[in-house]
Amino acid sequence: MKISGHTKVAGIFGDPVEQTLSPAIHNAAFEALGLEIVYVPFRVEPNGLKEATASIKALNMLGMSITIPHKEKILKFLSTVDLHAKEIGAVNTVVNRDGKLIGYNTDGMGYLLSLREDTGFTPKGKNIIIIGAGGASRSIFYYILSGRPKSVVLANRTVKRAQALAKEFRPKFNVEITAVQLEQELLRPYAQNADLLVNATSLGMMGRGKVEAPLDSLPPHAVVSDIVYRPLKTGLLKKAESRGLKTHTGLGMLVHQGAIAFELWTGEKAPVEVMKKAALRALRLQ
Ligand SMILES: NC(=O)c1ccc[n+]([C@@H]2O[C@H](COP(=O)([O-])OP(=O)(O)OC[C@H]3O[C@@H](n4cnc5c(N)ncnc54)[C@H](OP(=O)(O)O)[C@@H]3O)[C@@H](O)[C@H]2O)c1
């Protein structure tokens, strides 16, 4: 990697940040396009977020990825927030445009791009079940609703969280939205007509916990998707595969949300295949 007086800096703010695959993905992409940019992880504690955000401008950095636990709290420190990120209530990408810090959320769009690339699925007119109502789910739910599905069922362990999110998004979209407790038997009637079932919780991450979903009630054409990418093939996806259902892993979302950020920072088309290979390599090395 060449570092000179012209080198630009981008990176990621998170706490913890050690587990991130983003440096591997972005540095591979900058190198592939011969761009003199370096991407660095920064562990930023919650009480240091304001100063860290100001430093993006002070140090003339290109931009920053934002991860747990800063995605919501960073909004108030930015000059402008893109309309979609504002409605989602979370930012995962900051762009430093001539000293103005602009916030975007690329998670949900990255998810939809990857889902279409891997399975051909688009939300329009479809019945969809989303499990989870945390940060990642908010962005996925928002972009799925923007794709004009017929109905969305949002299931969460803490049902109040799903109900609050459904209430918040209902006035924005002309879609039938139902919030339910995450319980296999409560989901079963919805599964019978579902075209897509997505796990957007951390269940199954590093093999911890299990998503209780009525896969046996899904129609044969249904797609089962998991945003967890450690392991790449989660218990949920293995079970879906054994039932002959089409599956979608979390790797593509990781790559595509990063690819959109890359394009916002550089104005260049992201080398998605290079980024995908780098992510896979980094996953195997961890
Ligand atoms: N592929 C990608 O690019 C990508 C991007 C972002 C995130 N992710 C992954 O997505 C997962 C969720 O991230 P997040 O940022 O949304 O986290 P988060 O905001 O902390 O939300 C966690 C979600 O998981 C649920 N959950 C956690 N433990 C549970 C359990 N034991 N039983 C039932 N539900 C449980 C929570 O339910 P409650 O509301 O009841 O607590 C909530 O819905 C993580 O594994 C993360 O690595 C992947």
Q: In short, what is this structure?
A:
The chain is α/β, with parallel strands linked by helices.
The backbone outline, from C-alpha atoms, is globular
Taken as a percent bin, the fraction of beta residues is 15-25%
Largest sheet: 6 strands, mixed
Given helix and strand content, the structural type is: alpha/beta
Bound small-molecule species: NADP nicotinamide-adenine-dinucleotide phosphate
Strand order of the largest sheet: 2-1-3-5-6-4
CATH superfamily of the largest domain: NAD(P)-binding Rossmann-like Domain
* N-to-C CA distance: 22 Å
CATH class category of the largest domain: Alpha Beta
Mean pLDDT: 96
Total number of strands: 12
Radius of gyration: 19 Å
Summarize the topology.
Layout: E1 8-14, H1 22-32, E2 37-43, H2 49-58, E3 63-66, E4 80-81, H3 83-88, E5 93-97, E6 100-104, H4 107-119, E7 127-131, H5 135-146, E8 151-156, H6 159-169, E9 176-181, H7 184-191, E10 196-199, E11 223-226, H8 235-242, E12 246-248, H9 251-266, H10 272-285
Helix pairs in contact: 1-9, 1-10, 4-5, 4-9, 9-10
The structure holds NADP nicotinamide-adenine-dinucleotide phosphate.
